[in-house]
Amino acid sequence: MEGMLRARSLRKAPIPPALFADPSPANLQATRLALHVNEDESACSVYIASGCHVYKMEISMEESMVSRGKESLLIPVNAKVIEASELDRCPHRSEIQSVVLTQGGENSLILGSVDSYGHLIISQLDTDFDRLSYSVLPLDIGIGEGSWAGLTFSPINQSTVAVARSFCKSIDVYDQDIPIRSFRTLWYPNSLSFIGDSNQVNGSSPLLSIAEGSQLSMWDLRSSNNGGCIKRMSSSIGDVIYSVCGSNNNVAIAGSDRTLTVFDSRRWTAVSRWINCSKYEITGLSFSSIDPSFIYIQGVDYEVTCGKWKEREKAFSFRGDSNWLGFSKCADKDVVAGWCESGNVFIADVVMD
After folding, report:
1. Cβ contacts of residue 21 below 8 Å, gap of 6+?
2. For 144-160, what is each residue's pLDDT tens digit?
């Protein structure tokens, strides 16, 4: 019998009032949280963005039991905030829309943040101090108005990063601070993700998947045909795709139709469709690191579901206490975190039975 993922613990930690009073509104996508778990898994670092600033919280992950309520819903236990501070190396001038963590060299962490005008800042986070690596302004800075913006790191080369700007309908790809490609989308981009893994050889190029309007578009950085776009797949007419993520050759999308669709990028066909897997619109997706046949689904209100996408079977779910402002999974571990409008951060540690 195949194993099933389960939550080993669910913790709730309040943001200290001294850190910041009220969160800025940002946009529908909950992309303002990034998460890293320490090597000994005794604590985790949560990075959240509000206004023009990025904040770091160190939260204890000491072993705790899971209790369940009605309909097997997980009940969180209170967690200790070990330390909380503001990062002084992310000098944005407009509201930050997205933050992303990736692993750098020599076990260092790299934090990327982008604001509503596409200003990208990459910071290397060291154990002793935070060092500003570089910042990049879009080539057409000053044109248009601010909107949601997102970023994603290449899984093959961490110096390659793609930035999406919604109202500008543009995708800018950088190698460190050097612009290397720009793509123009047909619709407003809502999410983006590189499709590939770190096991690919250096020199190969992963595909870039973009959720734009009701379409999923795939882009090849090396191709000049059709502006770099190699494939377009449509969702239901009139629905909006809010989230896209990838694992190996699978690409998952979801949005306002509350349906999870998984495509095989080798054949460009849908291999699974999980209808009504969330009560409200879906704005966050992430494949499991333990077993990619499981996926985490974040609804626009306050619910997170983990389940098997092929069998369309729910494993477990938990809820925050208000709308999500940020949601993320640790890159190499099945630890997911969400930041609620109430000021609480929820962290679920997941294991295989």
Report:
1. none
2. 688 999 999 998 888 89
